[in-house]
UniProtKB/TrEMBL annotation, chain A:
Family: Belongs to the binding-protein-dependent transport system permease family.
Residue ranges the record marks as coiled coil: none
Source organism of this protein record: Phyllobacterium myrsinacearum
Subcellular location: Cell membrane
Signal peptide annotation: none
Name recorded for this polypeptide: Sulfonate transport system permease protein
TrEMBL record, chain B:
InterPro entries per the UniProt record, alphabetical: AAA+_ATPase, ABC_transporter-like_ATP-bd, ABC_transporter-like_CS, ABC_transporter_ATP-bind, P-loop_NTPase
Protein name: Sulfonate transport system ATP-binding protein
Keyword Endoplasmic reticulum tagged: no
The UniProt record lists the keyword Zinc-finger: no
GO molecular function annotations of the record: ATP binding; ATP hydrolysis activity
Domain of life: Bacteria
EC top class, as a word: hydrolase
Keywords, in A-Z order: ATP-binding, Hydrolase, Nucleotide-binding, Transport
Family that this chain belongs to: Belongs to the ABC transporter superfamily.
């Protein structure tokens, strides 16, 4: 018996403990390598942009040079203008996403747990989901005006659909075997939900959060394009109207970077919360 | 001598499959004494797992009477532990937390629970692995954790549904030995379902041999040897052969198959066209006679 345990500990040690340092180094190298590879295309793109503007392939009013855009960016950072607009946009996304995600989680849980709710809600929900977020804006604008309410609603809707679908699918996919264990242990419905169903559905719910946030962010820019006097989307419209294409490009780059960082942040959070998962598979 | 602990009287269980009625259990009666180790052996589709689930209260749709300590079994109870074939550990919880789930609804203080969990983990030989996640465990270790979860609440009956069916022969033998030790020290009534005749004979005070279609108790074979047992003893081998003979004689009930030349001697040859759910198990022999 004891010799058996020893061999097992030995085996586990060889896998998990002894190699940790080497394993980390290997992983760091891989991370750096991937970051470098990921930068190749953006660098080429900037180079093409620089080539196009310096050779005059496009008039300067339409495509300002990278150096000029860079100068504008520095100026906007120094004046704090870019932070003001980005801050406004982020605030809207945080609120909108929060409402949308909570509503989507609740609806998804209800649909995942109850066939009846699912039968009632799914068809109409899918039909509504088919209408792109931006397609809602004209009607909502008439109902809610062009204030913050409209923006929050549109952003919330962007998060709602992926949150609901992924939560419902995740709950449906929790193995019946697991639920039966709960039954054998006399779990109440609430315990089953808290201890089995929600943790079991967590990976799928997390996918919903990621998609939801991405959708929220794109919806935000859309709604700001149409009805706003501040925010990153507003910068785009205003820059185009003024023919300040440098501002437009700076705004676009900021939108991209913020979106990218949010997604990365969620990625890190997901890995942390789901560290029980097999690490070999995703490395 | 000892009073009846688990009483199963004239129990039948029918399933409706696409409008036709399938009799999984037909008029089964079995009395189990407190502290007894009863093993149930039979081919796929003989209703042995169905019987176990009824006993544990996971399934309550049956005719007849099932009583535990004189009370009718009308659902799962913390007095009845169960261990499944797959350990069914939750992958997002550590071994410790998985075992502790067995105490979620028990009336113990936090400190008592912690104490019980660590005792059980020690009992199944998993000390040092409390913080490990299921994917870090081997099959045998995961099943130890499954057994610990079934035992942690100190049930007075433990039902085991082919608990070692998915393990390799060596791990299986080791865990059988350990289960026997746990049974001897904890004095818990155990009911173990298996398709492994050696396992049934090695562990059981009585071996309940079941025949399929419809599921019936064919014969109950008392083993009558003291625990712990010698795997290689002649008496055990004789009883094993007796059980195998009974099992072989149960295969004649499907006349079509009996005409197949291989079917004459070998118990393995029964075609498993009964329950779709059982088809996956076909890869394993219906009766293994692993000699360790």
């Amino acid at each position: 018996m004891s010799s058996f345990t020893d061999t097992v500990i030995g085996a586990a040690g060889a896998k998990g403990i002894d190699n940790t340092a080497g394993w980390k180094r290997l992983r760091n190298r891989r991370v750096v390598r991937r970051a470098v590879i990921g930068l190749i295309l953006p660098v080429m793109l900037v180079f093409t942009w620089w080539l196009a503007s310096s050779r005059g392939w496009l008039p300067e009013q339409i495509l300002p040079s990278p150096a000029y855009v860079y100068a504008t960016a520095v100026e906007m950072i120094a004046s704090g203008e870019i932070f003001y607009h980005a801050g406004m946009s982020l605030r809207r996304v945080v609120y909108g996403f929060m409402f949308g995600a909570i509503a989507g989680l609740s609806l998804g849980v209800a649909m995942g747990l109850s066939r009846t709710v699912d039968d009632y809600v799914r068809p109409i929900f899918l039909a509504f989901a088919q209408i792109p977020t931006l397609g809602w804006i004209p009607l909502l604008m008439l109902i809610f005006g062009i204030g913050e309410t409209l923006k929050i609603i549109v952003i919330a809707k962007g998060a709602l659909v992926p949150m609901t679908m992924n939560t419902a699918a995740g709950i449906r996919s929790v193995p019946a075997n697991y639920v039966e264990v709960g039954r054998a242990l006399r779990f109440s419905r609430l315990q089953t939900l808290r201890l089995i169903v929600l943790p079991g559905a967590a990976p799928s719910i997390f996918t919903g959060v990621r998609y939801g946030l991405t959708h929220s962010w794109t919806a935000l820019v859309g709604v700001e394009l149409l009805a706003s006097s501040e925010g990153l989307g507003y910068l785009l419209v205003w820059g185009r109207q003024m023919f300040w294409l440098d501002v437009v490009i700076v705004a676009m780059i900021v939108i991209g970077i913020v979106g990218f960082l949010m997604d990365k942040g969620l990625d890190v959070a997901e890995t942390y919360f789901q560290r029980w998962k097999r690490s070999e598979g995703e490395a | 001598m000892t009073p009846v602990h688990l009483r199963i009287r004239n129990v039948s269980r029918r399933f409706n499959v696409n409008g036709t009625t399938l009799t999984a259990l037909d008029d089964v009666s079995l009395d189990i004494k407190a502290g007894e180790f009863v093993t149930i052996v039979g081919a796929s589709g003989c209703g042995k797992s169905t019987l176990l689930r009824l006993g544990a209260g996971l399934d309550v749709e049956h005719d007849g009477i099932i009583e535990h300590d004189g009370k009718s079994v009308d659902g799962p109870s913390l007095d009845r532990g169960i261990v499944f074939q797959e350990p069914r550990l939750f992958p997002w919880l550590t071994v410790e937390r998985n075992v502790a789930l067995g105490l979620e609804n028990a009336a113990f203080s936090k400190a008592e629970k912690r104490q019980l969990v660590s005792e059980q983990i020690a009992l199944v030989g998993l000390s040092g692995f409390e913080k490990a996640y299921p994917h870090q465990l081997s099959g045998g270790m995961a099943q130890r954790a499954g057994i610990a979860r079934g035992l942690v609440n100190r049930p007075d009956v433990l039902f085991l549904d082919e608990p070692f069916g998915a393990l390799d022969a060596i791990t299986k033998a080791r865990l059988q030995g350990e289960l026997q030790d746990i049974w001897a020290t904890e004095k818990i009534t155990m009911v173990l379902v298996t398709h492994d005749v050696d396992e049934a004979v090695y562990l059981g005070d009585r071996v309940v041999v079941m025949s399929p279609r419809p599921g019936r108790i064919k014969q109950i074979v008392p083993v009558g040897l003291p625990h712990p047992r010698e795997r290689t003893s002649a008496e055990l081998a004789a009883i094993r052969n007796e059980v195998l003979d009974i099992l072989n004689s149960t295969n004649g009930e499907t006349p079509k198959l009996a005409t197949r030349p291989v079917a004459a001697k070998r118990p393995v040859a029964t075609a498993n066209h009964i329950h779709a759910a059982h088809r996956a198990k076909l890869a394993q022999p219906a009766f293994s006679t692993t000699e360790i």
